[in-house]
Amino acid sequence: MNCFRNGGLKWITKNFTQKNLDWVDYGWAATTPVTVDKAIAKRMNELTDVNFRGGILMWVPEIFKIDNPADHLTWNSWHMGGIERKAVAQGFSFYSPIRYSELPRYYRDSLTPPDVAVFQVAPMDEHGYFNFGPSASHLAAACERAKTIIVEVNENMPRCLGGFEEGIHISKVDMIVEGENPAMAEMGGGGAATEVDEAVAKLIVEEIPDGACLQLGIGGMPNAVGSLIAKSDLKDLGVHTEMYVDAFVDIARAGKINGSKKNIDKGRQTYAFAAGTKKLYDYLDNNPECMSAPVDYTNDIRSISALDNFMSINNAVNLDLFGQVNAESAGIKNISGAGGQLDFVLGAYLSKGGKSFICCSSTFTTKTGELKSRILPTLDPGSIVTDTRANIHYLVTEYGKVNLKGLSTWQKCESIISVAHPDFRDELIKNAEQMHIWKRSNKR
Question: Is 84 a residue of the active site?
């Protein structure tokens, strides 16, 4: 080990003027570097073909702000947001299609080892460990293969307790940078819940039993579900989720969560990463009830299915009459990523008493004011199938919920149309007839 305080900046000054850096790992979500990012950005114009890996950017990195970034770098995203979508349009950002649960194995088995892994951490504890904060995810696996590890200390980073792979010992770190201690970047829940969100949430919450284990995605609908659960009479709930969001804090503070019925990790709220408001970070900090764990554990179908009454609640962009769910793109335009949605869809269904819910509003309004259906005859060309037609369990819109498991093509089509917006149902039926997946059972 050649570990020295602020040595990371000195190393960057020297090494980022050489063309020997093929792959640089840039942390994940709230752990994306700040101080080191600024230092790297100062050197980027001298380099070409540097590949960065990261995802769920919560602010624009300085390396994105250089002149003509496409001439110097490529951003390879494990999961995209608005910042990265803009970089796609500039020609230097690309999505890396993954099953999120497999990401640590990619690092260990098949990816080019990072030349540098750099990310923010919480201050070192008395035992010599730097905590990964709210982003355990895959960082331990990335560090195992990295040739150089630089940690950027942020005194505002919450110390997120876990069981394994939630931090790194100083003996494995090459350089330490005293960071600028920025406040934790906040991520909202997608705006206030609408009437449609609340209608969908009501239909889902009535399916949740006492003692259920919850997974919530991000967005208005999952947030609405969380708010409704917090106000409900439900009790003894557990948490096992990919992403920990503000809604869980509200449910916990309402006294609904104790994890007493969990088959594994009893009494603990388990998650792979977290992003939200200050309320969330304060709640996670040094909280022994919350368990930060690697994503190959949280999202493993075997972990999910081991938990009885598992309730998985996720959004969709749109879906078609075959039951194919797109949660990632608008045609060929990438919106986010696969994440762990399919893992939870499959795992929840395998759980004893488990249910998987795909929820969406039946329609959306375009910028020009045109009302469009999210339920389509077939997915638009280039759309990504996140969940195949055999995997969807419950589909929920503001017009109802339907269980699609085991249905024939015509039954599934009929059920999906039954929860479409009424203004689009007749047209969807005509399309279904042309595709030979319609039987007039509901017209008799």
Answer: no
E strands in 107-182: 116-121, 129-131, 148-153, 167-169, 175-178
Q: Which of 143, 178, 213 is the last residue of a domain?
A: 178
| C-alpha gyration radius of the chain | 23
With residue 303 as reference, give the H or E element that holds it.
Answer: helix 301-305
Both tokens of 109, joined, read: 């088995």
**Residue-level pLDDT at 107:** 98
Residue span of the structural domain in which 81 resides: 7-178
The CATH number linked to 117 is: 3.40.1080.10
Judgement on whether residues 329 and 212 belong to the same structural domain of the protein:
yes
Q: How wide is the angle at C-alpha 329 spanned by C-alphas 325 and 331, nearest 5°?
A: 95
Residue 371 phi/psi, 5-degree rounding, is: -85, 130
Residues 325 and 371 in one domain: yes
Q: Are residues 258 and 150 in the same domain?
A: no
Q: Check residue 10 and give its pLDDT.
A: 75
pLDDT at 1: 45
Please state the domain count of the chain.
2
Burial class (CB in 10 A: 0-12, 13-18, 19+), 222: buried
Residue 313 has pLDDT above 60, yes or no: yes
Question: Is there a single domain that holds both residue 284 and residue 411?
Answer: yes
Strand partners, 375: 319
Band (pLDDT 50/70/90 cuts) for residue 444 is: very low
Mean pLDDT confidence for 72-89: 95
Residue at token pair 């284990």: 213
CATH of the domain at 287: 3.40.1080.20
What letter represents residue 205's amino acid? Answer: V
Identify the bridge partners of residue 416 per DSSP, sorted by sequence position: none
pLDDT in tens, 380-412: 999 999 999 999 999 999 999 999 999 999 999
Q: CA–CA separation, 99 vs 138, rounded Å? A: 12
Of residues 361 and 21, more confidently modeled? 361
How far apart, in whole angstroms, are the C-alpha atoms of residue 150 and residue 120?
9
Residues 312 and 414 in one domain: yes
- Bridge partners of 50? 73
Catalytic residue selected from 165, 242, 328, 414? 242
**Residue 73 in 3-state DSSP?**
strand
What separation, in Å, do the N-terminal and C-terminal C-alpha atoms of the chain show?
77
Res 189: pLDDT: 60
